[in-house]
Amino acid sequence: MSVFDHGFLYGDGVFEGTRAYNGRIFKLQEHLERLYESAHHILLDIPLSIEEMKEVTLEAVRRNNLRDSYIRTVVSRGPGDLGLDPAKCPRASVVIIADKISIFPQECYERGLEVITAVTRQRPADTFEPRLKSLNYLNNILVKLEAAHAGVMEALVLNTQGYVVEGSGCNIFIVNKKGELLTPPPYLGILEGITRNTVIDIARQEGLTVRETPFTRHELYISRECFLTGTAAEVIPVVSIDRRTVGDGVPGPITRELMKKFHDYAQENGTPVYGD
Ligand code: PXG
Which of the following CATH numbers is that of domain 106-266: 3.40.47.10, 3.20.10.10, 3.30.465.10, 3.90.79.10? Predict the structure, then answer.
């Protein structure tokens, strides 16, 4: 990569994180559509069609001999000069990394995470579009730093109105005392996670009531269950928020059921890497 690449100099680019489970890439079409939509938003021409990108993504996993993988696709503006002008960057850079990822230790999936709410707020959607999966993740990094400074592994983010929106790189769900599953609606300013949408579908199939509705710290604190979702995080329980115990302080039954259902679904669905 050139040191003059505007992805490196200015965060001028977009990315995706996708997983392969059991030799199948999970929701590949959805991830690529989101990548191309983010690129379109920033007027970045990806020099491959979605179909070609699909093929090279599969090839990257194959060449690394992986069946379970985390794939990072990065498209940046490419090398230019030291000025901001994207017109001076004639050729976008495309990188596909097929590797593994583990952002939380296995025991956190069994015992649940302790989290805090961050002082850092979500940048307002009218100034910085949260659906744009750009290479500018500094706000998310600040959130992660706050978590580390508080001695926990993850932090939740509020928007400037005080509504809970997401984690540093994941979406949030709570179960209220009526047994309903609540998650913030996209219009509040969240990245509409592909894992989030899959969990909503699975939960509805299981007969749960799912509501996309705004909620504040109060609903968080009095929630019966809480969990986070993301491609990297998968589905992970939360058992304490700002030192308030969630439910019984252990991963709840709805969370455990959805973790299992998500795992089973991910094992069986996706684009085959090595042929069926
Ligand atoms: N919100 C944000 C801000 C994200 O970046 C998600 C939600 C979950 O979306 P998906 O589609 O993956 O269910 C993301 C994705 C990390 C890490 O190390 C996380 C993401 C990207 C890169 C790294 O936690 N998040």
Answer: 3.20.10.10
